Amino acid sequence: MELTDLEKIRVEKVNRLRERGIEPYPTRANPTHTMQEALTLLEAAEKAGETPPQNVTLAGRIRAMRPMGKLTFAQVEDGTGRLQFFFRINEVGEENLALLSSEYDLGDFIEGTGNLMRTRTGEPTLQVLSFRMLAKAISPLPAAKDEVVDGKVIHHAGLTDPETRYRQRYADLVVNPEVRKVFTARAAVVKTLRNFLDDHGFVEVETPILQPIYGGAAARPFTTFHNQLKQSLYLRISFELYLKRLLVGMVDRVYEIGRDFRNEGVSFKHNPEFTQLEFYWAYADYLKVMELTEQMVAEVCDKVLGTRKVMYNGQELDFNPPWRRIEMRQGLLEVVGVDIYEHPTAESLSAALYKKGIEHNPNLTRGKMIEGLTSDYLEPSFIQPTFMYDYPRDISPLAKSKPGDPNTVERFEGFVGGMELCNAFTELNDPFDQESRFLEMGRAYEKEDEERHPMDEDYLRAMAYGMPPNGGFGMGVDRLVMLLTDNRTIREVILFPHLREREEE
RNA sequence: GGGUGCGUAGCUCAAUGGAAGAGCAGUGGCCUUUUAAGCCAUUGGUUGGGAGUUCGAGCCUCCCCGCACUCACCA
Q: What range does the domain containing A250 cover?
């Protein structure tokens, strides 16, 4: 470990403590209360007109120190909050006060025993009778104070450089308390999703992350290798094909919350690994799934934020059901002026687009072309929660066709803040239709294109046993957390986002 | 992968091609109720790395590394 000058000074303090027989990293801490508990006790005692709690022991990290000669104030913080410690020469003695000033630094963990009180200014305070080091911090926390320039106060956050914040998330969490709030909100989101689905009779399962055949989405996978079995394996790109096997096995309502891995570009809304929620619901269809989605997201808003009106990127989002619903065909007709149903082939659609002067890649399939149109002309305008429904068949190989319309499938995607949040369909359960969809996909992609949907024979075998009609759903949990915490980049809601490896000296 | 921008002390930021600075943190003092405490003094730099142009480079040129934004890609 390479030490800076500031760190060398702190190592010296460790050595001096040990020379005095004081262990700077004792094995145990013995707090009697958390900071929050202590504050609550103090307030309760005051309300009841009783003496505040005496002889309590509190532990935490020193975040501020104000030495004033024969007394010192410190702000000490644990995960529940901060409380002021008050060291006075009268109680702790001259020697200990000198020890505090010479060997204790910002960032150190300290334990203090004493009496709860309030100072003259009303600050809740532990009047310390005795204290000890719990853990010496060697590296100074990246905390900065504010600067006064030409009479103006310039506020500096403790740590703002995004690279350092993500690479040293531990330091970010210490000095930027709002970051901790994002991740407690994230935990509440996941918990609420679980509770909601549990309450609706869904069973949570865990399916393979290492898969011999990847599928369920169009994405390039990460590849790995099992040494003893001498077998190539892929990190899953979705849970879909395994969860639907469970419908065959009579698990009628099933869900999984876990990590997907996609070997693709990173962006403000893409991380190579991300948290996905998928559920499958026997005897339901995409309309029922739409309704359940609205209820589920509203419940998350209620439980996590206490409101369904959420500020995101300067705009108020209203998550009250029902969401806006737009048929893809109608949406494109209004904005692009082309009725996709009148153009059942890529050639015909391309010609119509040229006629309208709409830029597009004519070499794509019909579905891919339409997809390009929706992402360019429709999605960015879906700020309020919006379902777009009824998608082209050739980009939806696992979705069931609309009755009487083989070119269109019963599928919807939910958009919020101009960003895709979820994707769902009435699931295809006809094994022969499914087989031909896999074959179609195989033809649509080049052999070496890893997005090519590989044929999954076992999935077809499962379906051949009979799969109940069902509706399925997938949602990017990270994106939901972005929306609810007003973050415009996915890195802010992932504790340790992927960054390029950096050469260490 | 392409384009644009950024990288200076532990943190946040200054510095016409001409002596590398400030605030906070740190260190040494003063200070018995502070609240971003205050006052006095003071340490700290391979200006991301390398090469070049120049009498002289933090600043200009080239290469490399990393990050940000953006485009492409992306069920």
A: 177-323+384-493
Domain boundary residue, one of A75, A105, A135: A135
A436 within domain boundaries: yes
**pLDDT, tens digit, for every residue of A211-232?**
998 888 888 888 888 999 899 8
- Given a cut of 60, whether residue A504 has pLDDT beyond it is no
**Residue at A370 is within a domain:** no
Share of chain A residues as helix, strand and coil, in percent rounded to the nearest 5: 35, 30, 35
DSSP track, A299-366:
HHHHHHHS-SEEEETTEEEE-PSSPEEEEHHHHHHHHT---GGG--SHHHHHHHHHHHT----TTS-H
Does residue A499 sit within a domain?
no
- A363 beta carbon < 7 A from strand B? no
User: Does A223 share its domain with A295?
Assistant: yes
Nucleotide nearest the Cα atom of A391 (by C1'): B75
CA trace torsion A305, A307, A310, A311 (10° rounding): -80
* CA to C1' distance (Å), from A85 to B74: 53
Asked if A95 CB < 7 A from strand B, the reply is no
Q: What is the CATH number of the domain that holds A119?
A: 2.40.50.140
- In this predicted structure, the answer to whether residue A194 has a pLDDT above a threshold of 60 is yes
* A268 has pLDDT over 70: yes
Which nucleotide has the shortest C1'-to-CA distance from A118?
B33
Residue A357 lies inside a defined structural domain of this protein: no
Domain count, chain A: 2
Which one has a higher pLDDT value, A167 or A460? Answer: A460
Sign of the C-alpha dihedral computed for residues A391, A396, A400 and A405 taken in this order: positive
- So what's the pLDDT on residue A446? 57
Could you tell me if A254 and A131 lie in one domain? no
Q: Are residues A234 and A295 in the same domain?
A: yes
- If asked whether residues A48 and A102 sit together in one domain, one would say yes
Chain-wide mean pLDDT for chain A? 90
Evaluate if the CB of A66 falls below 7 Å from strand B: yes
Q: Is the pLDDT of residue A47 over 60?
A: yes
Pair A247, A280: CB distance under 8 Å:
yes
Q: How confident is the model at residue A387 (pLDDT cuts 50, 70, 90)?
A: very high
End-to-end CA distance of chain A: 11
Together in a domain, A181 and A311: yes
* Closest nt to residue A502, judged CA to C1': B66
The verdict on A302 and A224 lying in the same domain is yes
Q: Which of residues 181-210 of A touch strand B (CB under 7 A)?
A: none
Residue whose entry in the numeric block shows the structure tokens 């899953």: A236
Query: Tokens in use for A169?
Result: 């998330």
Shared domain for A182 and A258, answered yes or no, is: yes
Model confidence over A406-449: pLDDT tens digits? 889 999 999 999 889 999 999 999 999 999 988 887 766 655 56
Nearest Cα neighbor of A425 from A217, A131, A143 is A217
Q: Is the CB of A107 within 7 Å of strand B? A: no
**pLDDT over 90, % of chain A:** 67
